C-alpha cells in the first residue's frame, strides 16, 4: 500500500507547506515593519494628542484621617456586605478569612486560630487605619502573595466608612 513514492510525496507536501508558511511570515514581517534599509528609524506617521501633560502630578484627595473624621458608620456597614462572604464580626470566629472583630489597632496576623500567609505578616506590625486603607485599596498589590482574592475597594470614602464601622464594633 505505501511505497517509497507515496512517502516521498507526503514528505514533499509537508516541506512545500512549510516553505509557503515561511515565505508568508517573511512577507508579513516585511510589510508590517516596513522593510527596506532604514528599518525602524523613520518618523512616526501620526501622533494622538491626549490633551494632558504626561509629567503632571496627579492631585491627591483627602487623607485617611480627614475621611475618617467624616466617615458614616451606616454606609460602612452596607459596604461591609462585600466582606461578609469571607469574614465574620464575632470575636474569635474565623471563616475563610480571619475574624475582623477588633481589627483596627490589632497586631497583623493575630487572629486566634487563623493561618496567615507570610507576605501579609511582613506588611505591617499593627492594623492602623492607614495600613487598612492601603490593604483595602488593592490587597494583592499591598501584600503580594496574599491569599485574599478580593479586588479591593476603589473609593476612598468606602474604605474610610468600612474602617470606621470596624472600629466602632469593639468600642
Automatic annotation (TrEMBL):
Q: At the top level of its lineage, which domain of life is listed? A: Bacteria
Q: Which residues form the signal peptide?
A: none
UniProt KW keywords: Electron transport, Heme, Iron, Metal-binding, Transport
Instruction: List residues of the Cytochrome c domain.
Output: 71-170
Q: Name one Pfam family in it.
A: Cytochrom_C
Q: Which SUPFAM superfamilies match?
A: Cytochrome c
InterPro entries named among the record's database cross-references: Cyt_c-like_dom (IPR009056), Cyt_c-like_dom_sf (IPR036909), Cyt_c_1A/1B (IPR002327)
According to UniProt, the name of this protein is: Cytochrome c family protein
Task: Please tell me the species this chain comes from.
Answer: Roseovarius pelagicus
Amino acid at each position: 500500500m505505501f511505497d517509497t513514492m507515496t512517502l516521498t510525496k507526503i514528505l514533499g507536501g509537508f516541506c512545500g507547506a512549510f516553505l509557503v508558511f515561511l515565505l508568508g511570515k517573511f512577507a508579513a514581517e516585511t510589510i508590517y515593519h516596513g522593510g527596506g534599509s532604514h528599518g525602524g528609524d523613520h518618523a512616526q506617521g501620526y501622533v494622538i494628542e491626549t490633551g494632558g501633560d504626561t509629567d503632571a502630578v496627579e492631585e491627591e484627595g483627602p487623607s485617611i484621617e480627614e475621611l475618617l473624621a467624616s466617615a458614616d458608620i451606616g454606609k460602612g456597614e452596607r459596604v461591609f456586605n462585600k466582606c461578609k462572604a469571607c469574614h465574620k464580626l464575632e470575636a474569635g470566629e474565623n471563616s475563610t478569612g480571619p475574624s475582623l472583630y477588633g481589627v483596627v489597632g490589632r497586631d497583623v496576623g493575630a487572629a486566634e486560630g487563623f493561618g496567615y500567609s507570610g507576605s501579609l505578616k511582613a506588611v505591617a506590625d499593627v492594623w492602623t487605619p492607614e495600613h487598612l486603607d492601603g490593604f483595602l485599596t488593592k490587597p494583592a498589590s499591598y501584600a503580594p502573595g496574599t491569599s485574599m482574592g478580593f479586588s479591593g475597594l476603589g473609593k476612598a470614602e468606602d474604605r474610610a466608612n468600612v474602617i470606621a464601622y470596624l472600629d466602632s464594633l469593639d468600642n
